[in-house]
Amino acid sequence: MDSSNPIERSSSSEISFKSASRSLSSNPSRASRGNSVRTGSFHDLGSRPVRLGSRGGDSEMFSASQKEISDEDARLVYLNDPAKSNERFEFAGNSIRTAKYSIISFIPRNLFEQFHRVAYIYFLIIAVLNQLPQLAVFGRGASILPLAFVLLVTAVKDAYEDWRRHMSDRIENNRWAWVLVNDQFQQKKWKDIQIGEVIKIKANDTLPCDMVLLSTSDSTGVAYLQTINLDGESNLKTRYAKQETISNIPEKDKISGLIKCEKPNRNIYGFQANMEVDGKRLSLGPSNIILRGCELKNTAWAIGVAVYCGRETKAMLNSSGAPSKRSWLESRMNSEIIALSLFLIALCTVVSVCAAVWLRRNSDELDTMPFYRRKYFRGSEPENYNYYGLVAEILFTFLMSVIVFQIMIPISLYISMELVRVGQAYLMIRDTQMYDEASNSRFQCRALNINEDLGQIKYVFSDKTGTLTENKMEFQCASAWGVDYSDGKISTQNQQVRCSVKVDGRIVRPKMSVKVDPQLLELSRSGGDSEEVKHVHDFFLALAACNTIVPLIIDDKSDPTAKLMDYQGESPDEQALAFAAAAYGFMLIERTSGHIIIDIHGERQRFNVFGLHEFDSDRKRMSVILGCPDGTVRVFVKGADTSMFSVIDRSLNKKVVRATEGHLHTYSTLGLRTLVIGMRDLSDSEFEDWHFSFEAASTAVIGRAALLRKVASNVERNLTILGASAIEDKLQQGVPEAIESLRTAGIKVWVLTGDKQETAISIGYSSKLLTNKMTQIIINSNSRESCRRCLEDALAMSKKLRAVSETSDNIGTSSDAARGPVLCCRVAPLQKAGIVALVKKRTSEMTLSIGDGANDVSMIQMADVGVGISGQEGRQARMGYMILYNFYRNAVFVFVLFWYALFACFTLTTAINEWSSMLYSIIYTSLPTIVVAILDKDLSRRNLLRYPQLYGAGQRQEAYNRKLFWVTMLDTVWQSLVVFFVPIFAYWASTIDVPSIGDLWTLAVVILVNFHLAMDIIRWNWIFHVAIWGSIVATFICVMILDAFPMFVGYWAIFHIMGEVSFWVCLLGIIITALLPRFVAKVLYQHFTPDDLQIAREVEKFGHQRDIAAEVEMNPIMEPPPRR
Fold first, then answer.
1. pLDDT in tens, 1013-1068
2. Where are the alpha helices (DSSP H) in 412-473?
């Protein structure tokens, strides 16, 4: 998908289908460059200045350069006059804010976000009810403490995270910049910079705002910027000041003028403006603006005027702010909590209805009836308790039931989840496989809320540059004058050569070594006059000259007596080609405003640069017009094969053209990025015509881009083909293998990039995102309606492929074609976020975004997960189990209280000490589940990587789903019945008191739920033993301490009952009887219908992989149920 909007197309849209084939791709720079003066001489031109142009000031991709900016749509910026600039409209200051909260908004907003959890609302209602005298089952303060504690802990965590954002904002806003004040540059904080102020940036400084470039330390007005913080690309970009402003010295010359520019927008690749200086009206474009966040490199200083500040800068407009993310499990928990709430209401309704019947039947005996006793006999005369009538008593019974059974909804679960996430994050941070030794940096988990979502990802959205690739190009091979110097494959045996030259008496070698073909190297060194040798020389001359490379001489750390030649430019492709030319003896050693110097096998030759037409998305090629030492003028052109063959004269050397086409196809099938090189000589009249048109187009105020494009098209014709180059874009280590594993795991990978369509497709093949077995559906459109039609056609084609896949025996090939990856090209940062949002809205699948630059921030924030793929697998499974286990352990306890209420005349008298009720979820049972959720794992890293299909368990929500929830609840009912009735029957005829049997129930439930957890542990270690058996021991100790206080009901009860043998027999019988059905069901299930994880665990436990001849058969990755 190409989201660019080219102005000139033969048709409004196109859609093409390619099956079992791939398109040839080219990869020139997409750099945007403005105007600067380049001097040269040609016959009668003398030393008259000649302008070097390009698509320059207007962006045909994003702005309509043919249109004048109206006053209503324009921003007026007066140079060096911030007061007048802000007189009509008070523009935004340069202060930025990425934090979510302020001191005033923190409490209400944070509470609002926290109460998205349904359980919190539930416990708030419980706390309010418990404040009423008629319903005060527990102490009023005790009922508020659990909720208050949970809210406080979460608020402290959120406050800390936001405090870090505030600190980052403060550091950013308080940085210093040099601002022109009273004809002198003075230091001023970034936050105080205003629109219209003139700012001076020094080398290696970061730009504080978006500025129009006025002048630089270079006499031609060029500035070199590193935009890695903006788009993730480390190569340098060139920006230019207008010739009319580069000579002004702000401290001496009064700077004045007016800039009329477009209003702030998110397009980081486009800019449209006009500037009036000294009575002249100049057009401005993307090559004349430098953006906030970029760094000035290889330029001593640059001066510009602020046009966009603070939140109106393009970088900030592409940041959608810090979102509040919640994991899928947490969102799904809300529905389960609602179900438990309804179940709780049902229990309370049963108790209240039964209480109503009991009160009606025993209305005459309420004064002395056990469990009720309406009269109070302590005084001299009996007094009646407050009796509000039957209806009120029923209502009070219902509400008191809600309070007593409140732990059915486990508020401690949220604290447990936070602790588990912290533990998981720690393990991920300490993962040695996610440690970069070169930069001494580790993985960082900045959002603990969504760790468990890593186990359920269905869509991965990735940036290309710096994420899939290292953005480092390597020249691999070439086709020169119809001869392939690669033998159809990438040679790993060719020698690496770094030619050297002498500059100022010192040996200078290229910084990068390049593999060279011995035969081609010999031809390049040959001094013969044969046609083949001449064309080989012209081929490498084109590689060295047709670019925007700036050569820089740097120190060689390995050899103090030598120097290194480094090539800096906007495109890593150009850098690779320049280093390749140098390796073959054509070393670019100098570039000035009007000429370049190339050392050709020890002989320096000077070429006058009369003009340069840079790459644009319509022509898909670039050209340079050179005045050669022999007095001739030549135009050298390089570009994509699709555009170059349309301007090559096929009547000349047909065999060479056909051979080159075949070589290009071969290179493309190897995943290499290809360019075609051509040239022709210009006659005097042709040069004069071109020069006149070029001057007129370069100085045009309106429609400059279209005029320059037309001039370039006129000169780039009837070319003689010289050859083709093949470059490998170095992928990040392990990218093809990772993408293959993701595909095997059923994860769909989309690549969203700002690069050209050809570049994206080429990388798609080299990274194994695309394969020759897939059917390509390419959509290009420049309007909404045409795009809609193309998408409808594509969907129809996809449905046909899907229908074929359902009837085809070869499911893999057809299925990949119907459900293959997606490449989106020429997308702006916010468009990336829009694509992610579209998938989330239409599919309800879990999404993950990966990026490395500021242009990826919105995409990362929009996705469910905006972090890298973790090396710690199986996290969702353990977290899902922990949630179910928390529901289970609390439900067992509540059901015991419920059964007792039915035997206590429905009066909600509790046999269990109220302190034990409070400590149950805090001390008795909390630690084991947290430890297990953090440390237990399904399989080893090796097997998880070997069988990516195992990831499908998370996508299918096998560890946590509605069926498992209700099965767990049924098991809970059985276990609670066993816990309650075994002691009842055992002590039915005894004189044991209620607190004693309550202690027995408490201990039985704690031992039961811990044994339940122990049955499900996969990999035991000493920490698990300490946590589980230690919790049981801690429960015994706590119960004995509570019963040792005389002020509590049940004083010394536990010591009486523990002395009887029946007590221990009851505990043993409860554990065996309660867990037996679950144990039998688990054994039968794992034996007859094992899942993928169980099979892999058996293989890992009982045999080594090398001893197993047959492959383990995995279940196919099926589409998971929609997320709700």
1. 999 888 888 999 999 999 999 999 998 998 888 877 778 888 888 888 889 999 99
2. 412-429
- Annotated ligand binding at 893? The verdict is no
The sign of the dihedral angle between the CA atoms of 638, 640, 642, 643 is negative
Identify the three-state secondary structure at position 194: coil
Average pLDDT over residues 720-732: 88
Cβ(294)–Cβ(206) under 8 Å?
Answer: yes
Residue of 1017, 984, 519, 468 whose CA lies nearest to 763 = 468
pLDDT in tens, 875-915: 445 777 788 888 888 889 888 988 888 887 777 777 787 77
Please tell me the distance from the alpha carbon of residue 304 to that of residue 856, in angstroms, as a whole number.
27
Say what the pLDDT of residue 206 is.
Answer: 92
The answer to whether residues 453 and 864 touch, using CB atoms and an 8 Å cutoff, is yes
Asked if residue 267 belongs to a known ligand binding site, the reply is: no
839/821 Cα distance (integer angstroms): 13
**What is the separation, in whole angstroms, between the first and last Cα of the chain?**
29
Percent of the chain's residues with pLDDT above 90: 22
pLDDT band at 715 (very low <50, low <70, confident <90, very high): very high
CA distance 994 to 913: 10
Tell me if 141 is assigned to a ligand binding site: no
**DSSP structure class, residue 825:** B
- Give the orientation angle of helix 875-903 with respect to helix 328-361, to 10 degrees: 0
Q: How confident is the model at residue 622 (pLDDT cuts 50, 70, 90)?
A: very high
Q: Which of 134-143, 723-732, 1000-1009 has the highest mean pLDDT?
A: 1000-1009
Instruction: Locate 303 and state its tokens.
Output: 């001066």
At 317-369, the pLDDT tens digits run 877 555 556 677 777 777 888 888 888 889 889 988 888 888 788 777 766 66
Rounded Cα–Cα distance for residues 305 and 303 (Å):
7
The answer to whether residues 498 and 558 touch, using CB atoms and an 8 Å cutoff, is no
Q: How far is CA 984 from CA 981, 993, 1000, 1049, 1062, in A?
A: 5, 12, 11, 20, 12
Q: Are 470 and 732 in contact (CB under 8 A)?
A: yes
Place of tokens 């970009």: 237
Residue pointed to by tokens 């289970």:
888
H/E segment holding residue 1042: helix 1022-1042
What is the torsion angle, in degrees rounded to the nearest 10, for the CA atoms of residue 39, residue 43, residue 48 and residue 54? -50
* Distance in angstroms (rounded) separating the CA atoms of residues 905 and 373: 11
Residue 409 · residue 339 · CB < 8 Å: no
887 is in an annotated binding site: no
List the catalytic residue out of 463, 599, 641, 938.
Answer: 463
The arithmetic mean of pLDDT across residues 158-162, rounded, is 86
Q: How far apart are CA 841 and CA 951, in angstroms?
A: 23
Catalytic-residue membership of 158: no
Q: Is 1030 annotated as a binding residue?
A: no
Distances (CA, A) of 442 to 232, 433, 435: 19, 9, 5
pTM of the model: 0.61
Query: Does the annotation flag 753 for ligand binding?
Result: yes
CA distance 602 to 599: 6
Residue 855 among known ligand-binding residues: yes
Tokens standing for residue 215: 């002048």
**Cα separations (Å) of 971 from 192, 380, 899, 1010, 1079?**
65, 52, 16, 15, 11
465 is in an annotated binding site: yes
pLDDT-based confidence at residue 1070 (cuts at 50, 70, 90): very high
Q: How many CB atoms lie within 10 A of CB 14?
A: 15
Nearest to 544 by CA among 600, 466, 474: 600
What does the DSSP 8-state code read for residue 865? B
